[in-house]
Amino acid sequence: MADEKIRFASKRDWVVIGALLLVAFGWLGIRNWTARPAARVQAKIYYNSALVKTVELDPGVEEKFAVPGQPEVVLQVSGGKIRFYSSTCPDQLCIHAGYLSRPGESAACLPRKVAVKLVAVGESGDGTPDTYIS
Question: Is the pTM for the entire model greater than 0.90?
């Protein structure tokens, strides 16, 4: 009994884990490789579930601005990307989200009811947000 070793995983378990990792990383690689970069990207900024501003994310644009209706939240546009620059929210998760640059990416400051969603120009024609913050 003393010579028995406790096995964490059998050889078959490692094969299954390796196959799952290979499939997952392969899927991510194919998704990123086949993703077409958008010709132009816009940031749609929502406050209290209402669209308050749309910003073109051009590489040459550099600006910081307070969100209309919520001056406690400041966004920064730089090099074709946007991020939450400052906010008075307690946990600062919106700031730690970092820069957004691709269509489909989004970040939100829930305590201040501000959301930023990136879309390719010509997308989301109805102007309604995907998420409502109440």
Answer: no
